[in-house]
Input
Amino acid sequence: MVTLNGSISLLVTLNKSHEISTDFFHSNLGNQQFNHYPVKLQTRDVCDFVDNFHDDYSQFVNDIINFPKKGKCPIEPRTVYVIDKPFPNKAIPTFFPSGLWKVYVMQKMDDVEVARFEIITKFKNNY
Output
């Protein structure tokens, strides 16, 4: 089980002009030689992204401190806290192969990238 801990500080107001997109990369041998993996979360504006996140994972976000409420747009500056949060197994599709994964989560405003988050995790498919 993976447990998430940390905080995200939003320093500016986010609205529908901010777009969220993702890119996935896989390293079969776990040696950091990543290949682009042909899957993505649908690119959406940040407000739709948060609403969709609530729709798909409401049971996992309800106790995240200061997480934006569904339907609330624009999203005002805040700090969101994730404390000892188990990562939900259902968030990983069963067709994902085991190995080392790198995920980029990008934020664009008016087609210009303004933020990029990199997540690297090892995943073992136990299905």
Q: What stands out?
A: The chain has one helix and seven strands. The mean pLDDT is 91.
